[in-house]
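Lecture 7 notes: from sequence to structure.
We start with the chain below.
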Amino acid sequence: MREISDQARVALAFALALLVMVGWYFLNPPKPQPPAGSMVTQPAPNAPGSRGAPAAQPNRPAGASSTGATSAAPVAATGEKNIVIESDLYRVELSNRGAAVHSWQLNKYTDEGNPPRTLDLVNSDLARQTGGWPLSLQLADSQLESAANQGLYVVKASSERGAESTESTITAPAQVEFRWGDGRLEVTKTLKFDRSYIVGVETSVRQNGSPASYSVAWRGGFGDVTAFRATLQTLVFNGRAGSVSTITSKNVGAPNQHNIPAEVPGTFDAVGIEDLYFAAAFLPPEPPQGQPVPDVLTLSARQTTHTLQSDGKTQQEILPEMAVGSTTPGPLALRLYVGPKDIDFLKSVRPPLNGLVQFGWFGFVAEPLFYILRWLYHFIPNYGWAIVVMTIAINMVLYPLKVKSWRSMQKMQKVAPEIRAIQDRYKKYSMRDPRKQEMNKEVMAVYSREGVNPMGSCLPQVIQMPIWFGLYRMLNVTIELRHAPWFGPFHDLAGRDPYFILTITMAILMYAAQKMTPMTVTDPAQQRMMMLMPIMFTGMFFMIPVSSGLILYIVTQNIMAVIQQWHLNRTSPLKAPPPLRGKKQVARAALTK
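Predicted structure tokens for the same chain:
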């Protein structure tokens, strides 16, 4: 018998294999496909009751491969779908691609656009450029991360009564569940909305059947992108025991590297991202009453580059992004606050988040001013007029210091000729000459003899300066003053002075008050400098963006200064200095020749 060649054996093997495959197809026809839009699910090879499934091997879990990895049933939707959750406070648009947030609008607030629109805290332009959206996932493996954030999730939404909803728009309270898997990675996200700014977020990521380490990220920028210097106002923050710390944009992420997340050392009870007036804060589940909130959250942050077209020019902006994780791998349960930095509401959250309203170095002045304004607002429902009333009250309280300053001016006016004579005797010496020290000693001796405090006339203005700085900071961080109108063109007390009306009025009143106030300096150069101060001050306000509410305070303060100075000039006018006698008179006459 002739021996079969090797080539014939291979051809016969292929033919037999083809025959087996065709026979298996006719004996086990494929099951019908599910309808469009539903999840694509195939029975696991070793699932109980599946026809034709091989028996599980001994000492090996069902569904485990020879390498020990557990396969998962693929779960995915067949097309993109958006779902909207609405309440009186917000309108949130979710996409099943990546189970991410595409829009988070706050219904009670508008942006800085012209015309203004409902404020959206998601920077959609940046998100489209970078491909990152809020509530996307961050994993160590970039390929797995991309798969999880690009997958089409199966959506299950339910309304307040727990009934499943097929509508694309649902009114809160509502719950939305997303599920997706590719056979290797399984992801679930559940979002629970109620009628407050706090949303429940529950996530789970499993890789080959085991819990995976991951983080939930806020991508796509944050806050009012139309605001002035919005990029510099966006900060990543963390909190521990009610104390909040911010991370400046230049210190976010890996040093000198963009788009690379870096872990922030330590664990926290709050992490998030903010701008001046709004915040997105991730919090652990609320503990039982009386127990502290645990520090179980981890924070990673990175910088991302955003290309911006402005006035026909292409600009590069760098914005921070953040991601929250847990100290242990596995499901992650969070509370997410997305809303205004309302100090009263933030105090009621556990842990308290009122530290997000940062009054800065002058907080000892700014915070009391805020509470005074808010108290006045109950009686005068207009923050502009409340600032006017508060300014009048502060100046009336400081009026005794104004009178004391006036007395000090009278004394300085009395000794002014003698001081001028001393200065004239030493004017030929340079400032570095040691003999200038003798002049200062003689001047101070005159002040001491007459009981004059050279700084006494400046005391009211010195006290006003911290109030200016405190009010400036308060107007920039309190949500109540944002877009607060006064009247006419003054529609935003926290914004710039429209048409510089208040700024010019301030300059006129400052000049008038200065003309009514006697000069305490005797040097002509110093006198000219004092007269130029209103112009210099006004020019600074033209160049530096200052809240119109602060300028309103200064205008009202100068109106009070003019009225008070007019009263003092009438009731206690300065007397002409007495003639110098003896040696002083001779010295003065010699100097004036």
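Points to note: The two ends are 148 Å apart (CA to CA). Residues 489 and 498 are 7 Å apart (CA to CA).
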